[in-house]
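Request: Give me one sample?
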Amino acid sequence: MTPDIDICTFDKRFHNGNADMVLCHNVCVSVCVCVQEANAINKSLTFLEQTVNALSRKESHVPFRQSKLTSLLRDALGGNCKTVSALP
């Protein structure tokens, strides 16, 4: 069971009011959304790590197309861009 279902089960068992049930549902939905966002971020960071590792090993295939993040950073990671630092 996922943690958000456990929270709902606990709240439904010990609270009988309708307001508590609605609050429980809203908490479960928000927890579920947070977990999904965290999973998506972790997935993108894993793909970024794989891309950087492939570049550092100078492999013939670099997996830039695995995620939107690596696709957007393709030029920056691949060495095809110039970096400018602007100091105030």
